[in-house]
Write a structure and sequence with these properties.
Blueprint (H helix, E strand, L loop, with lengths): L12 E2 L2 E7 L8 E5 L8 E6 L2 E7 L37 H14 L3 H8 L12 E5 L11 H9 L7 H7 L4 H9 L3 E5 L20 H15 L5 E6 L5 H14 L3 E5 L7 H11 L4 E3 L5 H12 L5 E4 L11 E7 L16 H12 L3 E5 L4 H8 L4 E5 L10 E6 L13 H12 L3 E5 L8 E4 L16 E3 L4 E3 L6 E3 L13 E4 L3 H11 L5 E4 L7 H12 L5 E4 L12 E6 L13 H13 L10 E6 L5 H8 L2 H12 L8 E10 L2 H13 L7 E14 L2 E11 L4 H9 L9 E6 L5
Parallel strand pairs: 8-13, 8-14, 9-11, 9-12, 10-11, 12-13, 15-25, 16-23, 16-24, 22-23, 24-25
Antiparallel strand pairs: 1-2, 2-3, 2-5, 4-5, 6-7, 17-21, 18-19, 19-20, 26-28, 26-29, 27-28
The chain binds adenosine-5'-diphosphate and zinc ion.
The site of adenosine-5'-diphosphate has 16 residues, from α7.
EC number: 5.6.2.4
Cofactor: Zn(2+)
Keywords: ATP-binding, DNA replication, DNA-binding, Helicase, Hydrolase, Isomerase, Metal-binding, Nucleotide-binding, Primosome, Zinc
Length: 743
């Protein structure tokens, strides 16, 4: 092959052309060299030959400005005469330097080939920017001195002050384009750009300004100052649920708009953001630009170009919006910063919140992290003084925090096969009788998480994964939530062939819904899960039904925990508060507190006080105690005290190596070989190999090694050095997850 890595010592100039490095969206270790006959600048998009096809790549700097630990390897240089020639240059906005720098940074940090990160920035069918259409208008010049033929007369009559294209004008006057051009030469017509109306109207910072409370006003000042300082800084905006965090950070957005700069707002689940965009429209007069992976191709392309040209001033998006080519980014906001949904777990494994901070640093713009229950990572950064911290302590409009109480399921258990305790049921009865709304939360889709044979003990398991099959009764199937395997619910036990012996064990929300229908005969029930709310419009419709009080009992999975504001909702029942605590993940407790606090925060956000019931078998658990006392801080201090001595994140650095293979033997063999070469160094520790959290996934056997280092030691160079001589054979695979979110 003629492709090679770039040698930074070669400036690429020669009489026969220029050496240009081009990063293509494919897994090469670095940019490839090409020959160009015209001078090209970094950031320009070009079509280049690659093998037998042509791909679109980006002209890249030969060297990058990364810390030494991060530098990518430099390959040998191919002589200019053997380089292939660049195809054509695309007529689009070049990728700005800060985005290119960011791509290099993310690649180096996550140990992924930079081309794969570039691919995320170019996940649009780019092509050239559509050329602006030109049209003819009548000039002020008098006709006297000019010879007006009948066909010229016809054109002049058809033309007006509204621009028309050459062909439209020729057609309207039944003449030819030559006649039109002749009139232009004579000075009677002139050409203007036909303005294509951009779908991205500028938000108006003064459209619907709110009356802020004193506390909100004070915090909003701090945020505004941050934006007006025009440099990188990170601020944690912490505030109880319903305190007006969104309202307050809208003021920071307004400040940024007044500076004529762009704003990026990251949300963990953009598909559920209808309420957010409505609020935005009420505050700023127009909808923001939206970015997520389900956007249609046309909208994607329009948005990409509008961001590049600075026409899209506020973008609200999923983590992938970090890779948009912002022209002048002045502020990044990460709402619900503690959410694990910000972590991308396949392909380029990066954390949206962490990379938002990197992005902010590289464009020298402030970053605001928002949460009612900040992550331990963020709190540690506040404590060390790296981040600023602002706090909203009370709910807006005098609403009180919900009271949280425990339902001890050891004493208050329902009958066999039922899951709602008498205590919770009574509370629901009362709530509905008062004309208020109640919500039941269970973070599990389907009917039952396990199907068991009463006769022989058989358990329905996924053939491809180490996981039980989940019954979805409405669809009549058992399915695997990890690989999507699906089968009909068997009529008899597949093992002992007993009939009617298969029983569901434990509840999913379908089963809770069934129970609720039996128990609350008059309730108007709405089910909210990814199974029932497949599209944004279905979600919007559900939200409307709640707002219009067409329903009064909402049953849902984690979807209901999102930042919804339902004024009539006063009771939240958590069906199984212990659900997230099993599994031996060190982060399980933190995640459970954050999720349940978020769910609890849906209750009593307006005039009526809220109540929350936690059904639990482990009432003494620190998670339950923290939720009941509404004392998040002591809980996090306890968590910190547990992790600090042994350098678990955020007090040390962590990387996971996931080794996978078609057979258990092959996975074990490779894992052991890797362990054999494990680095021995002070402040560096290797844990494992051990079975990965899902020991078998999609038919692949998985082992995991963890690399843990003291905070000052970067894991990337250690990993590179450790793995450089490891040969991966056949279908075995090593994946590196820097800063894994489970450990
Ligand atoms: P959080 O994001 O902290 O949960 P929100 O910003 O969603 O809180 O505010 C909760 C509710 O209170 C929303 O309906 C919001 O519109 C309302 N609200 C908050 N502050 C104000 C204010 N200053 N004026 C009017 N409404 C407000
Ligand atoms: Zn499976």
């Amino acid at each position: 092959t003629t492709h090679t890595l770039t040698n930074p010592k070669d400036n690429g100039k020669s009489s026969s052309g220029h050496r240009v490095s081009v990063l293509v969206p494919l897994p090469f270790p670095g940019p490839l060299d090409y020959l160009s006959h015209e001078a090209l600048s970094p950031g320009e998009l070009v079509a280049v030959p690659l093998g037998k096809r042509e791909v679109v790549g980006c002209v890249w700097e030969a060297t990058t400005h990364l810390p030494p630990d991060f530098q990518r390897p430099v390959g040998k240089t191919v002589p200019l005469s053997r380089l292939r020639t660049i195809g054509h240059k695309l007529e689009v906005q070049p990728l700005p330097p800060s985005l290119r720098h960011f791509i290099d940074w993310v690649a180096a940090y996550t140990l992924t080939p930079p081309g794969l990160v570039l691919a995320m920035a170019m996940r649009v069918h780019l092509g050239d920017t559509p050329k602006p259409a030109l049209g003819w208008v009548r000039t002020q010049k008098p006709e006297e001195k000019i010879r007006i033929t009948p066909s010229r007369r016809a054109v002049l009559d058809a033309a007006s002050h509204i621009p028309m294209t050459t062909s439209d004008l020729a057609e309207a006057s039944s003449t030819s384009s030559a006649v039109v051009r002749g009139l232009a030469t004579a000075g009677l017509l002139e050409q203007v750009v036909i303005s294509a109306s951009s779908p991205f109207h500028p938000p108006n910072p003064d459209y619907g300004t709110p009356r802020l409370s004193e506390e909100q006003e004070e915090v909003s000042k701090k945020l505004t100052n941050l934006v007006e300082a025009h440099h990188f800084d990170v601020l944690l905006l912490e505030g109880v649920t319903g305190s007006g965090k969104t309202e307050v950070y809208f003021e920071a957005i307004a400040a940024c708009l007044r500076q004529q700069k762009q704003v990026l707002v990251l949300l963990p689940e953009i598909a559920l953001s209808t309420q957010w965009t409505d609020r935005f429209a009420r505050r700023f007069g127009v909808e923001p630009a939206i970015w997520h992976s389900d956007l249609g191709a046309k909208r994607r392309r329009e948005t990409w170009h509008a961001v590049a040209k600075g026409e899209a001033q506020v973008v609200v998006g999923a983590r992938s919006a970090l890779f948009l080519p912002f022209e002048t980014l002045g502020l990044i906001i990460v709402d619900e910063e503690h959410e694990s949904a910000f972590k991308q777990e396949e392909g380029v494994m990066y954390h949206g919140r962490d990379m938002a901070i990197v992005r902010g640093r590289l464009v020298n713009a402030p970053v605001i992290l928002v949460s009612a229950t900040p992550s331990l990572e963020t709190l540690a950064n506040v404590e060390s003084g790296r981040y600023q911290h602002e706090l909203l302590t009370s709910r807006h409009g005098g609403a009180t925090m919900p009271s949280v109480s425990l339902v001890d399921m050891k004493e208050n258990s329902p009958e066999r096969g039922f899951f709602l305790s008498p205590k919770l049921c009574t509370a629901i009865d009362e709530t509905l009788a008062n004309g208020e709304q109640a919500m039941l939360f269970l973070n599990r889709r389907g009917y039952a998480p396990l199907t068991l044979c009463r006769a022989c003990g058989y358990r329905a398991q996924c053939p491809n994964c180490s996981a039980w099959l989940v019954e979805h009764r409405a669809r009549g199937v058992l399915t695997c939530h990890h690989c999507g395997h699906i089968e009909r619910i068997p009529k008899e036990c597949p093992q002992c062939h007993a009939e009617n012996s298969l029983v569901p064990i434990g509840p999913g929300i379908e089963r809770i819904t069934e129970e609720a229908k039996q128990r609350f005969l008059d309730a108007k029930i709405l089910v909210m899960s990814s199974d029932t709310l497949a599209s944004p419009s279905a979600t919007a419709e559900a939200i409307r039904q709640i707002a219009d009080e067409e329903v009064n009992l909402i049953i849902g999975t984690q979807i209901v925990a999102k930042g919804w504001h339902f004024p009539k909702l006063t009771l939240v029942g958590v069906v199984d508060a212990d659900l997230g605590l099993g599994g031996g993940d060190l982060r399980a407790a933190e995640r459970t507190v954050q999720l349940l606090h978020q769910v609890a925060g849906r209750a009593g956000r307006a005039a009526h006080a809220g109540q929350v019931y936690l059904q639990s078998y482990v009432g003494e658990h620190p998670v339950m105690k923290a939720l009941i006392a509404n004392d998040f801080q002591s809980f996090m201090e306890q968590e910190a005290a547990q992790r600090r001595p042994s350098f678990w994140p955020p007090y040390g650095r962590l990387a996971a190596l996931i080794i996978s293979a078609a057979t258990a033997e092959a996975a074990d063999a490779l894992a052991k070989e890797i362990a054999l070469y494990a680095p021995e160094r002070e402040g560096v520790q290797i844990l494992g190999p051990a079975p990965a959290p899902l020991a078998v996934l999609r038919g692949r056997h998985r082992r995991r090694l963890l690399l843990r280092t003291m905070r000052g030691i970067a894991v990337q160079p250690i990993l590179r050095d450790w793995l450089k001589d490891i040969k991966v054979k056949g279908t075995t695979k090593i994946e590196i997850d820097i800063d894994p979110i489970s450990f």
